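Key result, reporting period 2: structure in, sequence out.
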């Protein structure tokens, strides 16, 4: 009986060992792979749902973009002229009006070659004028307050030498200045 009992316990132990071996070598890896696949499936389903939500908003986004483009067109930040010559003529007219309203004297304007920089077609006008500091302030304010975006470059201010007094032979101070600067305007791209 002792021998039969030992053999029985040995058989039960071997059966348990086989069961545990099958469990750890086959069942646990299969269950583990199944759980990984389930997690991947859940991640892909989440991504799919998020993509569906994004695609469902496509029409709304297109409408918003069209609205923004329409609003952008109405704001007149850029010249809507077809050619650089017409855009520079408009720019010269704005500058001439600002200088004459401020009481300054426009000496000359010169259109510089246009260039494309950072995706913007730039139209540049070189301006020479004379006047006092208040006139310059008014001109710069008018340019800055314009609907169209304009940038002042290379501002050069030189005082005008005063006239010599014939009696005292001294030079009388003058508040007049010669002013040179460039005004850069921007043209809207033809495809916008």
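The corresponding designed sequence is given below.
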């Amino acid at each position: 009986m002792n021998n039969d009992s030992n053999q029985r316990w040995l058989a039960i132990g071997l059966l348990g060992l086989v069961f545990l071996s099958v469990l750890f070598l086959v069942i646990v890896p299969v269950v583990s792979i199944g759980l990984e696949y389930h997690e991947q499936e859940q991640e892909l389903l989440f991504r799919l749902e998020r993509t569906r939500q994004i695609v469902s908003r496509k029409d709304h986004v297109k409408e918003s973009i069209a609205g923004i483009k329409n609003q952008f067109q109405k704001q007149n930040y850029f010249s809507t002229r077809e050619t650089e010559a017409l855009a520079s003529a408009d720019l010269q007219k704005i500058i001439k009006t600002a200088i004459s309203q401020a009481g300054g004297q426009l000496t000359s304007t010169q259109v510089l070659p246009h260039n494309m920089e950072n995706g913007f077609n730039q139209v540049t006008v070189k301006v020479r004028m004379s006047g006092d500091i208040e006139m310059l302030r008014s001109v710069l304010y008018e340019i800055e307050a314009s609907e169209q975006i304009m940038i002042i470059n290379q501002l050069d201010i030189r005082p005008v030498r005063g006239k010599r007094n014939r009696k005292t032979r001294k030079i009388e101070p003058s508040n007049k200045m010669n002013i040179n600067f460039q005004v850069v305007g921007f043209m809207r791209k033809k495809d916008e």
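The first helix runs from residue 2 to 56. The two ends are 100 Å apart (CA to CA). This case is discussed further under Risks and Mitigation.
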